[in-house]
Amino acid sequence: MRYVIIGASAAGINAAKTLRELDEMSEIVIISKDTDVYSRCMLHHVISGNRNLETIAFVDKEFFSKNNIKWIKGIEVTNINANEKQVILEDNKVEKYDKLLIATGASSFIPPVKNLREAKGVYSLRNYNDVLNIEEGIKKSERAVILGAGLVGIDAAVALMERGIKTSIVEMGDRILPLQLDKNAASRYQKLFRNKKVDIFTKLKLEEVVLKEDGSIDNVRLSDGIVIKCDMLIVAAGVRPNVSFIENGSIKVDKGIVVDKFCRTSAKDIYAAGDVTFTAPIWPIAVKQGIAAAYNMIGKEKAFEDTFALRNSMNFLGLETVSLGVVEAPDNSYEVDVIETEDIYKKIIHKDGILYGAILVGDISYCGVLHQLIKNKINISNINKSIFKIDYSDFFSIKEDGQYKYEVV
Ligand SMILES: Cc1cc2nc3c(=O)[nH]c(=O)nc-3n(C[C@H](O)[C@H](O)[C@H](O)COP(=O)(O)OP(=O)(O)OC[C@H]3O[C@@H](n4cnc5c(N)ncnc54)[C@H](O)[C@@H]3O)c2cc1C
């Protein structure tokens, strides 16, 4: 059996590791554009100077040799011939497979803004190469604009701030981290950023990048006419799955590659996992999907059912936060309980005894219990204590036959 995996990151590496654990003998080949294995979640620490390529590697150097995995690195897959079971590389070489896993992740989306694609000094933050390019940009820059205030944009803003670059953040939504935080929680971070002299522009779009004669950036113009002087721009406006090598509908693609709960695509013996499936563009989901895919490739059925992707933890500028599930009540039929002090903000959204979302800022000690309650939709109607004080012991009970049972996990 010859297993081929495209992609050497969260999904691909964990799939390969699992395949090897389950099957000592078969051939495993990983093909990747990346020449290194590293955590994308930590790229901003390389920009800020706190880590380097070695200290963001999530497997050791011997991973491939120890596991007898062939790694074809630094090369792009340009086509898949599903009928012939072949992967075609950019140098026209062909790799045959019996089972194929596509774990090609996603790329930064560059929105169609005037001069954004042409300007010199525009960067994205997805790959280690982006970090090297940003590093070159920093050498020539005093002022930067970050487009997009999601997790990647805020990571970038913190890194540039730490490098002494005057940074401004532009966000279309009414607050930073709009998918992770409500207004109250976001405003606490916005205050911290403004204290550090980072400017934040919300409810505004980037309208145009104004260029100098040599094509470098002079300034950016926002939708209300505000002009921000800057030398570099980091675009953090979302991602799109890497599927350009899939031709003529040979594999079904919607927002990402369409997979069933066994990570099978529409093509025989081809599986997909991670950001390329657009299930949820976060690391833990890519890992779990990669592992599930490996089991199924080997013929041991394993469903991937952890689609609870709405969970985030952050610690920007020393303020810890966890957000789980929805961050705003969907309508008035939901109840919202809040505890608020100057340093702490806790909010739980619930309805008919079921918790749908929570935000914990400044004190995240309760997040483990809340995660389980929200993810598993545990009914808390019968528990007569404050919703902020429920703990695991409230879910022990005794079955009729005298055995203990535990209802949270
Ligand atoms: C700056 C940043 C911060 C992040 N922070 C967090 C965080 O705090 N928490 C969190 O959960 N997630 C975070 N993420 C998201 C997380 O990194 C992704 O969800 C995760 O990397 C997805 O893993 P993946 O294996 O699906 O794909 P990727 O990590 O995108 O890897 C794709 C692999 O496929 C290869 N590849 C792509 N196309 C081809 C091709 N045509 N031919 C050959 N090889 C190809 C690439 O070289 C790479 O090896 C962050 C991402 C970024 C960029």
Give structural notes.
With 409 residues, the protein is α/β, with parallel strands linked by helices. The chain has three domains: 2-108 and 240-297, FAD/NAD(P)-binding domain (3-Layer(bba) Sandwich); 122-237, FAD/NAD(P)-binding domain (3-Layer(bba) Sandwich), CATH 3.50.50.60; 320-406, Enolase-like, domain 1 (2-Layer Sandwich), CATH 3.30.390.30. It is built from eight helices and 25 strands. It has helices at 10-22, 43-48, 63-66, 128-140, 151-162, 183-195, 283-297, 367-375; strands at residues 2-6, 27-32, 69-73, 77-81, 86-89, 94-96, 99-102, 106-108, 122-124, 143-147, 166-170, 199-201, 206-211, 217-222, 227-229, 232-235, 239-241, 270-272, 311-314, 321-325, 335-340, 345-351, 354-361, 396-398, 404-406. The chain binds flavin-adenine dinucleotide (FAD). Flavin-adenine dinucleotide is lined by residues 6-12, 31-34, 40-41, 43-44, 76-77, 103-106, 125-126, 151-152, 155, 242, 245, 274-276, 281-284, 286. Its cofactor is FAD. Residues 2-290 form the FAD/NAD(P)-binding domain. It comes from Clostridium thailandense. It holds the Pfam family Pyr_redox_2.
